[in-house]
Amino acid sequence: MEITKLARLLILRGMTQQELYNLIKERTGKEIQLYRISTMVNGKLKDYKVSTARILAQALQVPTDAIIED
User: CA 64, CA 35: separation in Å to the nearest integer?
Assistant: First the structure.
């Protein structure tokens, strides 16, 4: 199974999905449900909205293409 860009970012930062969830709320004021974060991290949800990618990128302070799969 291939590791997603999002999973790779979390591994490199030593972050859990729960920590990402909290970071999103803290840095963006938005919320992405934990089960959704899990499906994106695990590659089960690949086709999500650009707005979702922007929220993730903003929270992680990376460009959106660091999150969106090629």
Answer: 21
